[in-house]
């Protein structure tokens, strides 16, 4: 199976992961709130960064500080191709959407990708359960120089 690269924080590669980074001020007041992206099978980060904008490998609030490794075997057909297609399709859809902090945001983008791939046999992923689960399951990365973006 292709795309089984290892996680490499120095290269910002997180295959089959949901990644997270804090949002200044907001995350300081509410530590469970932050900016989220989803990575392809090769580890390329895609995040809904603002109105009509899905970034690739340039998260809106800096490099990931935490990640949540997901299990590709929980995807329909256990396929990295299905995973990548779902990430691509969700990203293409969100390139046509206005960003709304409260109800259609980066978490919603990740939820759509997981729903499209039927991750864990579910199409009920949403920003609330992703916020909670990513807060519980995320793995912190070593601290980095604060001047580094």
TrEMBL record:
InterPro entries: TMEM222/RTE1. It holds the Pfam family RTE1. It comes from the Eukaryota. PANTHER family: TRANSMEMBRANE PROTEIN 222. This is Transmembrane protein 222a. It comes from Scleropages formosus.
């Amino acid at each position: 199976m292709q795309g089984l690269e290892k996680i490499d924080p120095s290269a910002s590669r997180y295959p089959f992961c949901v990644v997270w980074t804090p949002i200044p001020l907001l995350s300081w007041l509410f530590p469970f709130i932050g900016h989220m992206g989803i990575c392809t099978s090769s580890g390329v980060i895609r995040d809904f960064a603002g109105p009509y904008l899905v970034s690739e490998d340039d998260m809106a609030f800096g490099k990931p500080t935490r990640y949540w490794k997901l299990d590709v075997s929980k995807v329909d057909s256990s396929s990295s191709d299905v995973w990548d297609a779902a990430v691509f399709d969700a990203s293409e859809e969100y390139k046509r959407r206005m960003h709304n902090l409260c109800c259609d945001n980066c978490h919603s983008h990740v939820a759509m990708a997981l729903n499209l791939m039927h991750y864990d046999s579910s199409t009920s992923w949403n920003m609330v359960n992703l916020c909670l689960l990513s807060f519980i399951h995320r793995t912190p990365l070593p601290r980095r120089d604060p001047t580094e973006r």
